[in-house]
Structure prediction request, 73 residues.
Amino acid sequence: MSSPPAVSEPSRVDQHAPQERRARSVLIRALLGLLLLSAIVSGGAWLWHAGIEAEAEPAVLEQTVSEPVHPPR
Prediction:
């Protein structure tokens, strides 16, 4: 008697391949998103810091720009 032909069973690698690819894709997208978010936040903070200059308070005897200068009498 001859035995029936062997039916190959799908390997475990083939069964989990789509899930692993999807998980890897999600992980890569998440890492790229975090990298992009950190670049945007740090770049914005750097630009904000570079654009703000503290103004010194004028001295008591010093005239400010907004006050009109009166000619001497």
Q: What stands out?
A: DSSP finds one helix and no strands in the chain.
